[in-house]
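The material for today's practical consists of a large collection of protein records. There is nothing in a record beyond a sequence line and a structure line. As an example, a complete record with its sequence and its structure tokens follows:
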Amino acid sequence: MWPPPRGVVSGRTAATVDDDSARRDVELEPQVLPDQVSPGVLARVQDSFDRQGLMRTLGARITHIAPGRVHITLPRGEEVSQQHGYIHAGATSAIADSAGGYAAFTLFPEGSTVLTVEYKINLLAPAGGDRIEAVGTVLKSGRTLTVCQLQVFGHEGDEKTLVATGQQTLICLESRPDR
């Protein structure tokens, strides 16, 4: 059946977060249930993310990990703003790219790594609010190439606004562990 039912990614059930709880939750620690991703996958994703200098510089954090789905949150700050006070499109695009990449990485075999082949992003509204959240979701995971949907939401209190959407293609490089 295509498209797959909401919450199903490559035949696996992905975790979904209730919208009301997601709006209230500003905690920046990963939300992971033991039966969703193995501790090895969780560690591999988090270790790789922690080595990304750009994400560290921006102040981005992984806030949710499930098979084929990753959320990355970026708090609003002067260092990521543009001239009108919104979060810069470059920062918005960067966390979207990483969210999709790590969503794919959750499904890749151990000992492999992920690289973006291409992505396209549409900026739908100014990225305002106290934080933005990028959600990467695997649409199709193939042997070599994986396609992900990218969504970025602006959060202000209880309000959640879709500010960007996109699509991404990634390549799985086997026998080339992440460094």
